[in-house]
Amino acid sequence: MNMLRLSDHEHASLLTEELGSSSDDFIIAREVGPGVSRTATAYNHVGDAYTRYADGESAEGVLAPANRFARSDGIVWEALCTAIDELHKAGVSTIRILDAGCGPGIWTKKIAEYARRNGLAVAVVGFDISRTQLDLARSQAAELFSRYPNDAKSTLEFLEHDLEKPLPWENGYFHIVLCNYAVLNHIAESLLPRAIAEICRVASVRVMATMRAVGSPASACIIGMEHVREYRNDPSCGQLSLVLKDGSQHRLPFNMYSAQAIEGFFAAHSSIVDIRALDVFVSRFAADENWNASLLAGMPDRLAVVQRLKEMEDTLCRLPGWVDHGTHILVVVQPKSVKDEDQSECPAGSEHDRVVTSFQEFLKCQAT
Q1: How would you classify residue 312: left for phi > 0, otherwise alpha for psi between -120 and 50, otherwise beta?
Q2: Taken in order 345, 262, 61, 83, is the CA torsion positive or negative?
Q3: Domain covering 5-216+255-367, topology
Q4: Which terminus of the chain has fewer Cβ atoms in its 10 Å neighbourhood, N or C?
Q5: Span 275-299, mean pLDDT?
Q6: Which residue would you say has higher pLDDT here, 196 or 1?
Q7: Is pLDDT of 329 > 70?
Q8: How distant, in Å, are the alpha carbons of 68, 114, 124 from that of 4?
């Protein structure tokens, strides 16, 4: 079977750099862009430590057992694979997927591996604001290509881009757009509706996004909390301040949203397929390999307890009063066609103005 090849991107102005040995194994593509934001600076600083935080100490893939987000990842992964499989069954020759805020390329690599196992052709594009994370993504892809040098079934590409700016692809260019975890939380609140409109615009079949919920536990976003000396999230100004144990200080834009707000943002440009909490209970009761895993392994009926928690979460995860207390909220939508969508800005008094978009508004709504 043929496998993967990285190509330069035809829809952006790119600087290309060929890497590898004597063969033309792959082409690495990078957009030349201005300035570095506070968000990019933070993710550049932590580098591969973000991979270990997001994907477990083993950093072996989306479903790594040590990953504290393994169950949430599994739910998102199942939704993604279902959409890919449906496109394949419908006869789509090459499935185009955008990973908006791809970070170190964990998901792009898994998609490529899934395509190979199932004989699919996929063209995956990942973009991120952090050059360091993009370098890690390219390294992940290079390792994958080295294992399957003669396989040309699929392509992976990476470029530097800020989601607060318009996307450089035509309407409906991608079948699926994935925007995982805190990517949309880092967007300035005033620019979030436009960013969501853009990821819906360039998708034709599905958009899948996960966002930190208003009731989520504390997070440093860029690295595990064990590496944090001080932290403070200020919802009133949408800012997360961190002092890491290495002495570095970071201030990132960060806004948390209720399910009502998320649904409102997406409903203007899509039909909601599903919206649910991710990880209401499970990670709170998970074993930690560096703390208590060996003790919990012998606990009577522990597996039954964990299974019961999963069942409870599946029952409650879409209910008001529970959905906002997940670690993340997953929203799956079907984008509206361009002819059905009003491309104008939402006027004053529109649905976007009525939904809950801040922590303070959320608390007021709960009190009334």
Answers
A1: alpha
A2: negative
A3: Rossmann fold (3.40.50)
A4: C
A5: 82
A6: 196
A7: yes
A8: 29, 12, 10
